[in-house]
Amino acid sequence: xxxxxxxxxxxxxxxxxxxxxxxxxxxxxxxxxxxxxxxxxxxxxxxxxxxxxxxxxxxxxxxxxxxxxxxxxxxxxxxxxxxxxxxxxxxxxxxxxxxxxxxxxxxxxxxxxxxxxxxxxxxxxxxxxxxxxxxxxxxxxxxxxxxxxxxxxxxxxxxxxxxxxxxxx
Length: 169
Known about the structure:
Elements: H1 9-14, H2 17-24, H3 31-39, H4 46-56, H5 62-69, H6 84-93, H7 100-117, H8 130-140, H9 145-168
Helix pairs in contact: 2-3, 3-4, 4-9, 7-8
């Protein structure tokens, strides 16, 4: 596979193990999930790949959730660096434009969420406006820890699926 081009599903199917791992790790940095997705090759189509990815991501352990969250910036903040994860995050949050009031409220909500739950607020940002994300953040602040963990896990599954579709779709 050429590192300067977008890989095809056929190239992913044929890739050596380390190269295949490197391709999917930015989608969800959970070793068990990565192993399941890579070991499930070959895939006939992207839908089959996403199906295996969704199944492997349910359920997550607490340690896996913690690991995955370390790679996600606060919503509304631009991810730094040149890593594949940062590039995915910037792309996903590119549509989250908001006026100064919404930006301020997102920052305040992020702080409140982190104080309440001990980690960043995670939501699939792709396809959502700043106002929609703010509404979800405000609603989720009322959740108990177990409910929030379940929602967060579902958001991680959605993000991973979208990233895989973006790479191979």
